[in-house]
Each structure stands twice: as structure tokens, then as C-alpha cells.
């Protein structure tokens, strides 16, 4: 007898009782900016903290016969914090759908391109995936703190064609370039059109059928709540956006503070002797491969 690869462990117990003993959610809106972890870091220093030297990495083959698909899933979602998209779609016969997806990312800005990953099997495709294939349009909102309970409610496994708008309590408003409605309550939303639905590999079960899919979406409109948009109309205020990330299990992460690190420019870093880059590139550091800076193209030094 084989175990069900989709079986999730039920280890949360009475969640209401667990939550009752936790501190209240902190609604303060400030997002302080701190120093970077190690302002004195120099080239060649490696990690800014070495608390676990000597510990070894464990190798896992995701396709080993003893490695369950659900174990791969748990490793990925617990090891990779993910932004959460909230996708509004409509079927060819006009049925609306709302659903959250954490297999989501922006991959280009010119043109603006988003990707959404679907892990459902061909035998039970996600409504969002089905609707995108039928109509090719969507509205993607970034999931934020003020809407998370309503977003979570839409993950209910209701029958195809049942709209999540009513029981989520979210407000629908019309879009400009696509048919699906936009979530009026969202702080940052993007209308989009499907460029491609890429079928992915055959997955852990090796049954000869494509399992996952990747939707590549071209953004056709941005919508930003007015108090979250800068005067230059090119930046979203983090203290207003308050985005969430999906972690392992049923856990979410918040952005409570930030730090800044300017992107280095080769010409400037070579001039600053305290950074240690010149000595490394000239071969003075024994632990680094030698590279004569004079062999670097002059234009690279200026414009890299």
C-alpha cells in the first residue's frame, strides 16, 4: 500500500485556543530603517555572521524513491518566503473567481511581466488556471495585512463557478483593459493578459502527464491606492502597502523593518582602499584567485 502523497499532517490542533494565548497583532504603521547587518563588511569577508561554523549541509534528491512529493513541498515552502498574489479571473461563461497564489513573482519591467505557478493536476485544474486559458485575462493584487483574512477565506475549496466575492466581503470594481473585476480594497493591483501557459514537467509521480503549469502574464494597467503612491508616481510607500509573505505551513511573515545597501560600482569600489577589493583583484589576498585589474576593459571600470 502506498501512502497518499498529497496528505498534509494535521498538527495545528485547536487553532482558536492556540491563537487566544498569543499577543495581539501590532497595527503600528511605521517601518523603521536600520543599519545594514555589518556596515564594516569588506570584500572577501563572506557572510556577516558565522554562528554555526562546522555544521554540514544535508543533500536530498527530490526524485529519490523514498522522498515523498509532500516532503519536497514542505521543504520549498518553508525554505523560500514568497510574496502572495490575489488573482481575479472570469470564465468564458461569466463566472468570477478569486484565489491567492504564493507561487508568484515579477520577472521583468519592460514590458511588466508576472508569473504565477499552478501545482494542481490536469484532473483537477485550478479555476484560475482554467479561466486564464479560456479568457486570457486577470487582475493580480498584492496581498497585504489589511486584507489577509478575506484573502484566506477565498482558499476554500468551493465548487467551480461559485464566486468568492460574496463570502470574502471584498468589494469588486470594474477594470480598464480586462473583463475580470479588480479588488477595490487592494492597495496595489495589476491588470494583465496571458502571454503563455507553459505546461511543466511530469512531476514526482512520473505518470506521463504534465502536472504543474506556469502562467506568463503581461501587465496592462497598474492601480495604486492614492495615499500609497509617491508624488512622482513611481514608488509604492511600504508603510502603507504592508505586504505579507507566505512561509511554511500556515505561517505568514510581515515587513517590520528594513535596511539599505547601495549597489556597488566597480570604479568606486576599486578607488576605496578600505573595501579591500583592489588587493583581492591584484592577487594580494591568498584566498582569492588573482586578477590583474589592468586587464579589465577601461569601459567596464566606468560603466559596469
Automatic annotation (TrEMBL):
Domain of life according to the entry: Eukaryota
Pfam family, one: Flavin_Reduct
UniProt KW Flavoprotein keyword: yes
InterPro entries xrefs: Flavin_Rdtase-like_dom, Split_barrel_FMN-bd
Segments forming domain Flavin reductase like: 77-236
Compositionally skewed regions (Basic and acidic residues) per UniProt: 263-276, 295-304
Keywords (A to Z) from UniProt: Flavoprotein, FMN
Coiled coil spans: none
Chain spans, region Disordered: 1-49, 263-304
UniProt family annotation: Belongs to the flavoredoxin family.
Entry protein name: Flavin reductase like domain-containing protein
Organism: Cladophialophora chaetospira
Classification lineage: Eukaryota, Fungi, Dikarya, Ascomycota, Pezizomycotina
Amino acid at each position: 500500500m502506498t501512502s497518499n502523497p498529497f496528505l498534509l499532517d494535521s498538527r495545528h490542533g485547536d487553532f482558536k485556543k492556540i491563537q487566544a494565548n498569543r499577543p495581539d497583532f501590532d497595527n503600528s504603521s511605521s517601518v523603521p530603517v536600520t543599519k545594514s547587518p555589518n556596515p564594516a563588511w569588506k570584500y572577501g569577508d563572506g557572510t556577516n555572521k558565522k554562528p554555526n561554523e562546522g555544521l554540514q549541509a544535508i543533500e536530498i534528491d527530490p526524485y529519490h524513491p523514498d522522498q515523498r512529493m509532500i516532503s519536497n513541498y514542505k521543504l520549498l515552502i518553508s525554505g523560500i518566503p514568497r510574496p502572495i498574489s490575489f488573482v481575479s479571473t472570469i470564465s468564458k461563461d461569466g463566472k468570477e473567481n478569486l484565489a491567492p497564489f504564493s507561487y508568484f513573482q515579477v520577472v521583468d519591467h519592460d514590458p511588466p511581466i508576472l508569473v504565477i505557478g499552478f501545482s494542481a493536476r490536469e484532473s483537477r485544474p485550478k479555476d484560475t488556471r482554467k479561466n486564464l486559458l479560456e479568457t486570457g485575462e486577470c487582475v493580480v493584487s498584492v496581498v497585504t495585512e489589511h486584507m489577509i483574512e478575506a484573502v484566506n477565506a477565498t482558499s476554500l475549496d468551493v465548487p467551480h463557478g461559485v464566486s468568492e466575492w460574496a463570502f470574502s466581503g471584498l468589494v469588486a470594481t470594474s477594470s480598464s483593459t480586462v473583463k475580470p473585476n479588480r479588488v477595490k480594497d487592494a492597495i496595489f493591483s495589476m491588470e494583465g493578459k496571458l502571454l503563455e501557459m507553459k505546461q511543466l514537467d511530469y512531476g514526482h509521480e512520473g505518470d506521463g502527464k504534465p502536472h504543474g503549469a506556469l502562467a506568463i502574464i503581461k501587465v496592462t494597467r497598474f492601480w495604486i491606492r492614492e495615499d500609497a503612491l509617491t508624488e512622482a508616481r513611481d514608488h509604492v510607500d511600504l508603510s502603507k502597502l504592508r505586504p505579507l509573505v507566505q512561509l511554511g505551513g500556515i505561517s505568514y511573515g510581515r515587513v517590520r523593518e528594513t535596511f539599505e545597501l547601495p549597489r556597488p560600482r566597480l570604479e568606486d569600489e576599486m578607488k576605496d582602499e578600505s573595501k579591500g577589493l583592489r588587493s583581492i583583484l591584484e592577487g594580494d589576498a591568498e584566498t582569492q584567485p588573482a586578477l590583474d585589474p589592468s586587464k579589465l576593459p577601461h569601459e567596464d571600470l566606468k560603466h559596469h
